[in-house]
Amino acid sequence: MAGLAAAVAASGRGLHVHLYEASGHAGGRCRSFFDTRLDRVIDNGNHLLLSGNRAVMRYLEVVGASGSLVGPARATFPFVDVRTGERWCVRPSQGAVPWWMFRADHRIPGTSLRDYASVLRIARARATETVHDCVGSAGVLYERFWKPFAVGVLNTPATAGAASLLWPVLRETFVKGERHCRPRIARLGLSEALVKPALTWLRGRHASIRFSHALRTIQIDDRHATVLDFGHRRVCVTARDRVILAVPPWAAAQLLSGLVVPDGYCAIVNAHFVLPEPVQPHVVPLVGVIGGAAQWIFLRGDVASVTVSAANALTQRRSEDLAIEIWQDVAKALGLAAGIPPPYRIIKEKRATFRQSPDNLRCRPKTATAVANLLLAGAWTDTGLPDTIEGAVRSGFAAATH
Hints:
Elements: H1 2-12, E1 18-20, E2 32-35, E3 40-43, E4 49-50, H2 54-62, E5 69-70, E6 77-81, E7 87-90, H3 118-123, H4 131-135, H5 140-154, H6 166-172, E8 183-186, H7 190-204, E9 208-210, E10 217-221, E11 224-229, E12 234-236, E13 243-245, H8 249-255, E14 265-274, E15 286-290, E16 296-300, E17 303-308, H9 319-334, E18 344-354, H10 358-361, E19 374-376, H11 389-400
Parallel strand pairs: 1-9, 6-15, 13-19
Antiparallel strand pairs: 2-3, 4-8, 5-8, 6-7, 10-11, 11-12, 14-17, 14-18, 15-16, 16-17
């Protein structure tokens, strides 16, 4: 998404764009595909967007795809504790003042007004502090809000995740009020929403797009990139050209000698189930799960897609065992029969994001590099945000306008 965003921004400035994709598709992890086992189009991994993700919303507006996301007219986040069967919804207030916290029937069950003072500790978090350092690991609010929120946003255990990355997300969404934190998911899939419209828009502006062009080496002379070597193709670059390198951190480190990048990665496990019949959500097409293996359930038609973040340990387990365990949570959350799961697909993304710990924050590089005409883009660069789609799009925009 960082590369696509950079291409869109550069083309929008009237520049001639050549986009080289390493694989046979654009969008990186953000993509959909037809699964022959399920006979359905599913997303490689689920992504929850918020109405306050201004870079993504601007990107969609530019490429003419603003209607590709769906969600409720008011910000609502339903949860279920699969251990107790308890259900509740978090409904942020309309303005910046969080009036909902002052009403016991609106707060997360089992929490008190005093518990929410922990937001101030997150707002003042130092770069060296983890979520656990700031809010501890005890109490109902930690179990039912801070832990799932931190793991979902950072894809890193709360005991290791950098607390300072949470505040920018809260400040731009929940702190501004419900208009900025309405949940949004792709109506037909991530490719239809975020990738295909951009490719169509770019082609309409005569951008050159080539797939299956994995960059092998960059020839650098006198602090300028001069040749891009794709193996079967060599592309000459002038000092007036700009090269935006939008690749994973490990690839960037291999291409640019001496580049410091974050070390260590966290996995995400996604489980897709074809339900016996479509489930009509009462409010929004997603459910947060507390106390189980599942974390978030996304609903699209008769497919329930489950996300499990910070899932390094799960990648070592058999897909059959994961499907059985995760399905029990889905069945409880949706009021379906447990037992043998319906047709499913398990997708393990072992390097979904970099490990977003305090130590790794210091390893996030800036957009500019020591090579005068070469820039970096990617959610793993120093965007000030977590490794998310919003961060990726912002990094692409920044590189294209640098």
